[in-house]
Specification:
Layout (H helix, E strand, L loop, with lengths): L1 E4 L4 H12 L5 E4 L9 H4 L7 E3 L5 E2 L2 H11 L10 H28 L8 H22 L12 H16 L5 H4 L1 H10 L3 H5 L5
Parallel strand pairs: 1-2
Antiparallel strand pairs: 1-3, 3-4
Helix pairs in contact: 1-3, 1-6, 4-5, 4-6, 6-8
Length: 202
Amino acid sequence: MKLIGSLTSPYVRKVRIVLAEKRIGYDFEVDSPWNASSHVPNHNPLGKIPVLILDDGSSLFDSRVIVEYLDSVNPVSRLIPEPSRQRIMVKRWEALADGICDAAAAVFLERKRPDTEQSAEWISRQLTKVTQGLEAAARELDDKKWCDGNTYTLADIALGCTLGYLAFRFSEIEWRNTSPNLAELSGRLEKRTPFMETAPRE
């Protein structure tokens, strides 16, 4: 299999960590859809990363679809629980984490526009989503070791990638001070080899 993505995308990082945790071999092709010469649209009509190219040449996207597929093809280290309610709650955590990333990425892209074309209202609206998302995550994590309780799951990977992205792109958001339980979880995750090996970098 081949994974196409960038070294900064939290969604790509999530897939790379799942691949590592599941001990699935793959080739990694660094490609950004923002590059004029990008081949991403050849594999994903939406022009977004990550894209997973399967052995038969077919492609999977987006990250939520890819990680669900990966968890199903290899029984090693199951990251999405089987029981229906537990499964839904882990996927809900993933949706929350990805939603925070969506809002943060929207701000990052807006800030790359010329100052005169940026919308302060749009940026404020997206940053509010980030803040509210982090507050919800901290509230629901409470004093648990992992998002799902005592078991490391996809929920932790997704949230860890989100927190890593915020630390990488938004140092001004002081979530470590306002949510010490998120800081503790992030610190625990970043010591895991798959997290260390996929730390975002330009």
